[in-house]
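Structure representation:
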Amino acid sequence: MPRNLDLTALRSFVTVSDLGGVTRAAGALNLTQSAVSMQLKRLEESLGIDLLDRSNRTIALTATGEQLVGYARQMLALNDEVLARLTDSQFEGEITLGVPHDIVFPYIPSVLQTFSANYPRMKVQLMSSYTGRLKQQFINGECDIILTTETELPEGARHLSDVPLVWVGAKGGSAWKQRPLRLAYEYNCSFRRPVQRALDRAGIPWEMAVESHSTRSVEASVSADLAVHTMLAGSHPSYFEMIPHNGALPELGSQMINQYVRENHGSEPIGALADLVAAAYARP
């Protein structure tokens, strides 16, 4: 007799995979942690296999889980497409969401997927830029919701989390040992000046080896071990590594991830998207 997979449990499974844990997934799905855990358990029991490796402190997919997550994405996408085409919704329109380019991954794709399932006729326009530009666009009314990386909590902002700023470089690279220290930054990067001041305080000579308007140019230079860069912990690409400097470089403190939402928007979808974003980026 044919068996049916539970789409609700599959959505929880995919969200846990995308966000890296049950706590964040529960927040994004507007469920309790126990509800998400029970769905995962029922899914594993229905298939008779382990989908998650719980042997370490962080949750990881088993080999079978990695295989299932691809199928699950296809099934959920088809489910959401059917609902979007065949059901009426009282909410139609567009929301503009602004997110700094270095914190788009890994959370925003899952947030957008969940929001699209709940509000299939709403369109989300994602804008990725620097914090300074995003704040100006928000002031100009060009964005409904923005995230920022800042060292303080301005009036009107909602603090979501604190994330350490860390040194990153090429895998196995040695550029961080050179003096003067060669830096690579975009012209408008908000981390650039604080990092230079931290090096000055530590008495470490530095030079701007790469200055560009292009993130790709900076990434190519750093991955070639021609310079070093700084990013928020957990946001660096796979071809970078956190530099194991053991105190040879100054500690850089943390950055606040803040959220701004258009005042008096009176829109359920905007409020729902803001809550999904906040749940994804808030630390447990």
About this structure: The longest strand covers residues 158-170. The mean pLDDT is 92. The chain has nine helices and eleven strands. The CA atoms of residues 21 and 196 lie 35 Å apart.
